[in-house]
Every structure is written in C-alpha cells, then in structure tokens.
Specification:
Blueprint lengths: L4 E2 L6 E2 L2 H6 L3 E7 L9 E6 L8 E6 L40 H8 L16
C-alpha cells in the first residue's frame, strides 16, 4: 500500500500528505537546501510525542509539496549569485527569500507549515 511517510523511529504512518501536515505532532524545524540545480532540497520535520515516545526528525523531499506552490516555478539555483540573501546556508533559517531561485520556491511553500517552537534551552516542541 502506498503512503506519504512513515516515521523512521516509531513507525507511525501518514497515508496522505494532508494528514501529515495537519498532525499536531509534526512541526517544521529546518530546510536543507539543494546546492545542485538538478536536485531538490529537503524539509526537516520533528515528530514530537509526549513522554519521549518518538521525538525524531524526518526528512521529506521538497518535491512532495510542490503542488502547494501557486506562483512561478524557478529552476535556477542562485546560491552563488550576488543576489543570494544567504538564508539557505543555515538549515534552521525558515525565512522567505525574494530571489528568483528554486530554493526560494521551497521557502515560500514552507511558510504554510507549523514551525517548531524552541524553548529557552534550544529544544523543539
């Protein structure tokens, strides 16, 4: 049976993408940008359950979410361009980017995801 994602630690399965995005135990913790034009980046989500039942990070390819983007699709990578704002150099940077770059498309899409809330010690919840 096809499914969207299975947790690598606790084996919880999300059948479809919307179930994954609507699950309150899932939050966005980072974006691993692609530095190569022919490859996609990855979103990093924490799967946080009470009492340390899981608490792992899941990688999901950006391509799984491209249909959420309604604007122009840029395919060029501008990371080494003087236009680059440098957001992608830091995985935990979840800011939008105004440069016409494929990673900016991924950054725009992720604005719809629930970000993790970090406590004073830096842990996600």
């Amino acid at each position: 049976m096809n499914h969207f994602k299975t947790c690598s630690k606790c084996s919880h399965t999300w059948t479809v993408r919307d179930d994954f995005l609507e699950d309150p135990s899932i939050c966005l913790v980072g974006f691993q940008a692609s530095f190569v034009e022919s490859e996609s980046g990855y979103y990093l989500f924490n799967h946080i359950l009470d009492e340390d039942e899981c608490n792992t990070t899941l990688m999901v390819n950006v391509e799984a979410f491209l249909s959420l983007h309604k604007g122009s699709m840029f395919t060029d990578n501008k990371m080494e361009s003087p236009l680059c704002e440098g957001h992608c150099a830091h995985v935990e940077n979840l800011s939008q980017c105004s440069v016409e770059c494929k990673n900016a498309v991924a950054r725009e899409i992720m604005q719809a995801f629930s970000p993790c809330i970090r406590d004073k010690g830096g842990a996600s919840r």
